[in-house]
Every structure is written in C-alpha cells, then in structure tokens.
Specification:
Blueprint: E1 2-10, H1 13-42, H2 50-60, H3 74-92, E2 110-112, E3 119-120, E4 124-126, H4 136-139, E5 143-146, E6 158-165, E7 170-177, E8 190-194, E9 198-202, E10 207-209, H5 215-237, E11 239-240, E12 243-244, H6 248-280, E13 286-290, H7 294-298, H8 304-310, H9 312-325, E14 329-333, E15 359-361, E16 368-370, H10 371-387
Parallel strand pairs: 8-13, 13-14
Antiparallel strand pairs: 1-5, 1-7, 2-6, 3-4, 4-5, 6-7, 8-9, 9-10, 11-12, 15-16
C-alpha cells in the first residue's frame, strides 16, 4: 500500500526565495504548454504530446531570452508540461473544464521535485538545484529543515514528491510504499452515527463531542470575526472611487486573519484524525456508516453552518482509507435506511420521529434510549447481517 506523508518545511530566507523561484518556473512551463496546445489547435493541428513539447522546451532554453531556465531543475519543467498536457486531455475527454492559465497572484505556488534525486534525513530534506555551488557553505542551502523529526522514512523509494505553499508555510508531500497488513481484526464491529450535537456516537458507547462548542474554538472564531470586520472597515475607509486600495496595514491584518483561519482548520483536522485513529485502534472487524447527504442538509439554513463546521464528509473519508490500511471491512448503509426511526430493542419503526426528538421512545415496547445511540446500534446490526 502507498501512504502519502506531508510535512512542513522550515526554510531560511535564501531557501524561501529559491522555493518561490522554483514555483514561478513551474508556472511558466505550465502556461507555455497551454499556450502551445491552444495555438496548435486553433491552427488545425493534432494534439501535441508531452514528449514533443519537452524537446521543444529544451531548444527554447538555449535561446538568450530564456537561458535563465537553466538555473532551475529540468524536472520541474518536465512535470509541469506533463501536468498541462494531462489537463488538456481531460478537457477533451469531458472529464473537466478547460484548463486555466496559472496566475501569479491567485494560483497556489507549487512544484515537482525528482523522486530519484530527493534525499531525506531525520531532520532535513535535500532538494535539487536550490544551490548549484559545490562549496560546503553554499551546498548547505540544498538541505531544508523539516518541522517534524523522523516523520518521513529514509533510504526508501519516494513517489510524486511535491512542494507547496499554503499562504503561510511551505510543505513537502511524498508517497511511501508500506507492506500490506495480512491479518484481519476480529473484535466486535462498530456502528457510527454522525450528528451535529455530537460529532460521532459509536455503538460500543463511545461518544465524541462537538469540538466547535469548546471555549478554545469559540475564542478563535470570535477573533476571526473581529479581524474580518476590521479589514472591511479599512477597505471602506481607503476606497478611491470605485476601486479599493490595499495598504500595508490591510496586508498585516489579512495575514493575521489567515493565521487565525489556519489555526481553526488545524484544530479541526487534528481532532478528526485523533478521533478516527482512536476508533481504528480498537481493531473492529467492521465499521458501518450511513451514506451522507451533506448537500441536502446544507440547504437547511438553520443547520448549514453547524454541519459545515463538523466536516462530516472528511470524517467518513478518513475512516474509509484507514479501514483500508488496517484491513478492516467498511460497510456503507443505504441513504434511506431508517437507522434513527428503528427501535434497537424490538425492531419496530417509528415513522413520525422528528428532528427535535433527541430521545427515542418506542410505542411498541416502551424502550427509551438516546436517538443517536439507537441509530448506531442499528447500524452495527446491519453490519452483522452483511457479513453473515
């Protein structure tokens, strides 16, 4: 199995500048490829393969105007040409829209690095052509410090290494091949019901609270709202005619806003990973979840924000791939399966159950149970039926 690992980089000022230059080289090669494909198509020519365009790009680098490209790794431009050709193919195969030219202001900076030439230690990563000098003090620029120690294994084969910038920090992501798990867990299966009041309710009695109700998250959200209003007022005060002027103070406030938003995102992601990993570490033989109609629920203006903050789809996505990693069977219940309306004791269905009813009271057997816990038990039994 192949696992993707993403680690933050800690470059110095010179390395940071070089990383931005590499991303600019990637953007130039991508835009050049799209322009050549578009020009060729308008002139009635057939699709240009990435091999032909690479040869043409190599000749382009020999000219005086574009000789600056020789100062950067040719693997960056090769992969950019290939990515542009793939995007062009997907458009004609009706798999996506027409590829857009990359903008310096709006496009996220990123570039590819050669999987054969990249090197990792416990604390650093070596990227190609950050510095061409062979002097020791200059060659050190090729080694960029990693934010996490021993996160990426050394002395192994890496797949599709990419370096990206998220607006605050640089990140490197690589694919690493691991051995498949042969044994199958044999503990009791788990049914999981997702909700808004609590994130997840498991059939074994475990309940994972809604992290958005904690004081820590509420405090950051309050800070973010204040920054948004402050930036809006700054824009209005600096308005010149029909255009808005961005001052240095606005840029500083926008960076603070980006940090606050990123902090919230990281808290949510960390909580989701901790929750899903804890469930997987119990080694159940199967996990059952319902099909999520998130788009339908988002149409309810009273619940849309709460559902969006819970990241229910991301929770399910993590459970699915972690089940695959650990050889656990994942069962998906049908969207119309009445898990909440079915009594977990006698099996009768209560058709008039409302969303406001947080407790399930069975009119047949008199069972009184929490609505979400009742649904998780029914999902667990559905999983037992599927493997029987």
């Amino acid at each position: 199995m192949i696992k993707s690992i993403k680690v933050m980089l800690l470059p110095n000022n010179k390395q940071n500048s070089k990383l931005f230059e590499n991303s600019g080289t990637n953007r130039f090669a991508y835009n050049w490829t799209l322009a050549r494909q578009k020009e060729n198509y308008e002139n009635g020519g057939k699709f240009l393969s990435d091999n032909d365009l690479r040869k043409e790009f190599t000749q382009l680098k020999k000219s005086d105007e574009y000789k600056w490209l020789n100062g950067y790794s040719n693997n960056i431009t090769k992969q950019a040409i290939k990515d542009a050709c793939d995007s062009y193919k997907r458009f004609f195969n009706k798999q996506s829209g027409f590829p857009k030219f990359k903008s310096k202001k709006k496009t996220r900076p990123s570039f590819y690095t050669d999987s054969c030439k990249i090197q990792f230690t416990e604390t650093h990563v070596k990227l190609e052509k950050i510095s061409d000098s062979k002097k020791k003090n200059r060659a050190k620029l090729n080694w960029i410090k990693l934010a996490e120690k021993s996160r990426i294994p050394t002395n192994c084969k890496y797949m599709n290494p990419r370096v990206t910038f998220d607006g605050l920090n640089w990140w490197i992501s690589v694919g690493v091949e691991y051995e498949d798990i042969n044994y199958a867990p044999m503990n009791n299966g788990i049914g999981i019901d997702l909700g808004v009041k609590d994130l997840a309710i498991c059939s074994d009695g475990s309940t994972y609270k809604n992290i958005n109700k904690t004081n820590k998250v509420k405090k950051i959200e309050k800070k973010r709202r204040r920054l948004q209003r402050q930036i809006s007022r700054k824009y209005q005060n600096n308005k010149e005619g029909s255009s808005y002027k961005k001052t240095s103070n606005i840029k500083k406030l926008e960076k603070k806003l980006l940090k606050a938003s990123r902090r919230l995102t990281n808290i949510h992601k960390n909580y989701l990973h901790q929750t899903t990993t804890e469930i997987i570490n119990r080694e159940p033989m199967f996990i059952v979840m319902e099909s999520l109609d998130v788009q339908g629920v988002m149409k309810n203006r009273h619940l849309s924000k709460a559902v969006q903050q819970q990241s229910l789809y991301e929770f399910k996505r993590q459970i699915k791939y972690k089940c695959l990693w650990n050889n656990i069977r994942f069962v998906q219940a049908d969207k119309w399966y009445p898990s909440s309306k079915t009594c977990s004791e006698c099996g009768s269905i209560k058709k008039n159950l409302k969303l406001l009813d947080r407790e399930y009271v069975c009119t047949e057997c008199g069972c009184v149970i929490d609505r979400d816990f009742n649904a998780s038990i029914n999902l667990m039994r559905l999983g037992l039926q599927s493997i029987a």
